[in-house]
Design a protein that fits this description.
Blueprint (H helix, E strand, L loop, with lengths): L5 E6 L5 E2 L18 E5 L1 H7 L36 E3 L1 H7 L2 E6 L10 H13 L4 E5 L3 H13 L2 E7 L4 H9 L3 E5 L3 H15 L2 E2 L6 H7 L1 H13 L5 E5 L4 H15 L8 E7 L4 H6 L24 H11 L2 E5 L1 H15 L5 H15 L8 E6 L7 H8 L9 H8 L2 H7 L1
Parallel strand pairs: 5-13, 6-7, 6-9, 7-8, 10-11, 10-13, 11-12
Antiparallel strand pairs: 1-2, 1-3, 4-5
Bound molecules: pyridoxal-5'-phosphate and ligand LJ64HWYM.
Pathway: Amino-acid biosynthesis; L-threonine biosynthesis; L-threonine from L-aspartate: step 5/5
Pfam families: PALP (PF00291)
GO biological process, one term: L-threonine catabolic process
Length: about 425
């Protein structure tokens, strides 16, 4: 059975349309991965089918199943992804000087928002009768896909840059994937995975070329809209970090759909944040003539030199009235420590990057102090403890002597007198 609510796959460059019930990645009319495809829907059919309790509890992203491009007779492979909390963040708000909420997508089953897309990929691959699935990854998509492939009983072969954080390499190994650590950058691992997909015919999960992956990511936008209904107001800004640009594009598409269907009465502006050393989407959005294709940032998840989804990301920024800005690695590390120490939310650097973006946007008058901001923390910090050590300065090492504690805090009597 086909996906009744999906109408076509439309090329973002030339508008050519393709049958969505085939496995197709990019538009063959363009070289390489340029002709990214957009999934289009019959929204009347979706609206008829959707019976979610808007403003009510969100058990998982499957609350929005009517919006998801899976066949009605597909066996869904899920670990209960999505349904992540949107936290009030009073301490962080005080520190930043603007009302801030945190959507903690690091609480997904494998510790990253990628699970929203991986559930779709493995479900679709199985439905298409495939038994091997692949992707290129800076680490999170790899870990996520490996977990879902294990759950779905599929073989998983992933390509990661050799210097990926060890936590992100351990995770897919435990999930039973073949982890191929490429001597090179993410961009090189990516090109290799595309080559392999063409030659071996494995199913490719990469969001940048597999048009259905951005569609899974849009449930974060559905949830933000749903949570806005529960809270009674839509935030002025939603802030994401950007690497390939698929995540912000998906989130915007999801929120916009709910707005256009009349489920929610306003839309946020999207703020996309990149690292100074990996700035290609920012550069394209601001019409810089020389786009810097070198990626050098400790925020490994957004260390992307040649983003594959610049078109969709820039469209999200433009349509929402938002913008893109850059932050330094030092700001990212400081943001990781700030988010953790103010709200107990431990993010990897790319997950904390939006917090650094809010600070910069306030300084530059892009965000006003009387606005409301949602930062989306996209990945859990324990995947990259080396960066956490850099962010915090690490532990105090002491001998097992009371005098060592007294050296730090004074004697117990002195500390009691201070209280
Ligand atoms: C934790 C984390 N945050 C942000 C991103 C950026 O997402 P995108 O590449 O879709 O822009 C990624 C990777 O893609 C990621 O793993
Ligand atoms: N930084 C990403 C890159 C690939 O993920 P995708 O979902 O955009 O395909 C990662 O975590 O690997």
């Amino acid at each position: 059975m086909g996906m009744t609510q999906v109408t076509t796959l439309e090329c973002t460059l030339c508008g050519a349309e393709y049958d969505p019930n085939q496995v197709i990645y990019t538009c063959p009319e363009h070289e390489g991965v340029k002709g990214i495809l957009e999934v289009t829907y019959d929204y009347d059919a979706i609206d008829d089918a959707f019976d979610g309790d808007l403003g009510g509890p969100i058990a998982s992203q499957w609350k929005y199943e009517a919006f998801l491009p899976v066949a009605a007779d597909a066996d869904i492979v899920t670990l209960n992804e999505g349904g992540t909390d949107l936290f009030d963040a009073p301490n962080l708000s005080d520190a930043l000087g603007v009302e801030t909420l945190v959507k903690d997508d690091g609480r997904n089953p494998t510790g990253c928002f990628k699970d929203r897309a991986s559930a779709i990929a493995v479900t679709k691959a199985k439905h298409a009768g495939r038994d091997i699935i692949t992707c290129a990854s800076t680490g999170n998509a790899a870990a996520s896909l490996s977990g879902y492939a294990a759950r779905g009983g599929m073989d998983c072969r992933i390509f990661v840059p050799g210097d990926a954080p060890t936590g992100k390499l351990a995770q897919p190994l435990v999930y039973g994937a073949d982890v191929l650590a490429v001597n090179g950058s993410y961009d090189e691992a990516y090109d290799l995975s595309v080559d392999v997909t063409e030659k071996y015919g494995w199913y490719n999960r990469n969001a940048a070329i597999n048009p259905f992956q951005v569609e899974g990511k849009r449930t974060v936008g559905h949830e933000l809209a749903d949570q806005s209904i529960a809270r009674g107001h839509v935030p002025d800004w939603v802030v994401f970090s950007m690497g390939d640009g698929c995540t912000i594009a998906g989130a915007w598409k999801g929120f916009k759909e709910f707005y256009e269907l009349g489920y929610v009465d306003d839309r946020p502006k999207m703020l996309g944040v990149q690292a100074e050393g990996a700035s290609a989407i920012h550069d394209a959005f601001h019409d810089h003539e020389d786009i810097d294709e070198i990626a050098e940032t400790l925020a490994d998840s957004i260390a992307v030199g040649r983003p594959r989804n610049t078109i969709k990301a820039c469209r999200a920024l433009e349509q929402s009235g938002g913008t893109a800005l850059l932050v330094s690695d030092d700001q990212i590390l400081a943001a990781e420590a700030l988010l953790g120490s103010t709200e107990g939310i431990y993010s990897e650097p790319a997950g904390a990057t939006p917090v650094a973006g809010v600070q910069t946007a306030l300084d530059r008058g892009i965000i006003e102090q009387d606005e409301t901001v949602v930062v989306v923390s996209t990945g859990f910090g324990l995947k990259d403890t080396k960066s956490a050590e850099k962010a915090t300065g690490g532990v105090d090492r002491i001998d097992p002597e009371i005098s060592e504690v007294e050296g730090l805090y004074g004697t117990a009597e002195e500390a009691a007198a201070d209280d």
